[in-house]
Amino acid sequence: METFDILVLGGGPGGYSLAIAAAKKGQKVALFEKEHLGGTCLNVGCIPTKYLVDKANAMEKVRSLVDREIFRDAGSFSFRKIQKGKGEVTAKLVGGVQFLLKKCGVTVINGEASLEKNRVVRCGGQEYKGKNVVIATGSVPMTVPIPGHELTIDSTGALNLERLPRRMVVMGGGVIGLELASAFACYGTEITIIEMLPSLLPRDQKEAANMVVSALKKQGIRILTGAKMLRVEKGNGALRAVYELDGKQDSVEADQVLMAVGRRPNLSGIDAEALGLKLSEKKHILVDGAQRTNLKGVYAIGDVAGGIQLAHAAYAEGEAALTHILTGKAPKDRAPVPSCVYTNPCFASVGLNTDSAKEAGFDPALGTFDYSANGMALAEGASGRVFVVADKATKQTLGVTIVGENASELIAFGALAVDKKLTLEEWERMVVAHPSLAEMVREAALDAFGAAVHKA
C-alpha cells in the first residue's frame, strides 16, 4: 500500500488547485478523478457556460450598433461552430490542468475512488494510504421527481445541444437557469422561466435585481414567478410544461425543458454512515473554519462541504485546508467571496446589501452611480449601475453590487473595498484611471455620503 502526504478525492477547481499548491510545498500528493480533470467548472459549468454567454453578448452588442445604424446588419451565426469553439476552449483548459499536475509531480489516478476508514482510499483494485485526505467531490444537478422529469435536460444537456431549440422552458430561476436562459434568448430561442419563489435574485440588492429582471424581459424572456411546475408531457411533436400560478393551471409548449433547480453534494464513494462522517440536514459534509471534518486528518472543500457553491470559493477553501495541513493553524478570517451571475447584463455582488446590513445591525447608506454618466461606458455603449452600501456611523464600506458590462471584473475592486472596510476618507484619497469603468465604483462609494463628483 503506497503512502502519500495528501490524497485528494476529486479533480475540480478546489481539488486540483490544492493538489498543485501542496506539491509545490514538497508534499507527496495523489489526486483521484473518475471523469474529467477540471470538474464541473471547466467541463460542464463555469467555462462552457461563459463561452456561450460571451458569444451571445457579442451578438447583442452588434445588434445595438445596427439599431443605431453604425453597423448595417447583425449578420448570421453558426450555433454548431459556437459549440465547437466551446469544446476547444474546454479542452485547452483541461489540458493545462493536466500539464500543471504532471509538472508539479502530482500522481493522478483515473477511476472512481472510495474512502475507507483510517484515511485509506480504494481505486481500481488498489489501496492508497494518506496522512491527510481532502474530499473535493463537488456536486451534481438536482432533479425534482415531477411526472415527466425524464423528458427534461439538465445544464450539462443544455450545454451539449447540437441544435438551437426554437422554444425552451427553464425550470428554476437561480444562477444556472438565468445564465442559460439569457444566452439562449440572445441566440433567438423563445424562453419561459418558471420559478417557485415570488421573485428572482431575492437575496440581493432589490434595485439591482429589478434591473436584471427588466433587462431579461426586454430580451423577450417570459418570467413566471410564484409558479409551480406540475409535470412535463409529450404532445403534438413537442413538450408541454404544465404549471400552477395563482391557483390556476396553465401550460407552455417547448422543444426542450431545462431543469435547473440547483445542485446537491456528490457523495459517490463516500459512505458517511460507515465512516462516521457527520453531515448536515442537506447532506453536505460538516466542516470547521479550517475545512476539517469530524474525522482526524480528513478535510472537505467545495460544493460537497456546502457553503458558497462557486469555483473561487472552492479555491479559497482548498487554501485554508492546506494551510492547516502544513502548519496546524486555522486561517484567519477569510476575505468576502464575490458572486456573479453571467446574464446579459452581468450581475455581481459582494458583502451586504441594504436589507442584510440592517439585519446585521448597521444603519446603511446606499450610494449609486449609473453607467450613463461614465465616459468609458458611453464610449463602449455599456449600460448599468453600481451600488455601494456603507455604514453611516463608521463610513466603512459594507457591500458592492454591480449590474452591467464587466461587472464580474469590477467586483474584484469591490471585494477589496469590502474586505478592507474602506472609509469615505480612503475612497476620497483614491486615484482611479480615467477613462475607466472602475471610476463608477469610487463614485458610487462617494455618493453614499453625497460626495460623488459626477453626479448632481
UniProtKB/TrEMBL annotation:
The active site is at H434. Residues 337-445 form the Pyridine nucleotide-disulphide oxidoreductase dimerisation domain. Gene3D superfamilies: 3.30.390.30, FAD/NAD(P)-binding domain. It is found in: Cytoplasm. Coiled coil: none annotated. Its main location: cytoplasm. NAD(+) binds at G172, G173, G174, V175, I176, G177, L178, E179, E195, G262. GO terms for biological process: 2-oxoglutarate metabolic process. It catalyses: N(6)-[(R)-dihydrolipoyl]-L-lysyl-[protein] + NAD(+) = N(6)-[(R)-lipoyl]-L-lysyl-[protein] + NADH + H(+). Disulfide bonds join C41-C46. It is an enzyme of class 1 (oxidoreductase). GO terms for molecular function: dihydrolipoyl dehydrogenase (NADH) activity; flavin adenine dinucleotide binding. The active site is a redox-active disulfide bond. Belongs to the class-I pyridine nucleotide-disulfide oxidoreductase family. This is Dihydrolipoyl dehydrogenase. The lineage of its organism: Bacteria, Bacillati, Bacillota, Clostridia, Eubacteriales.
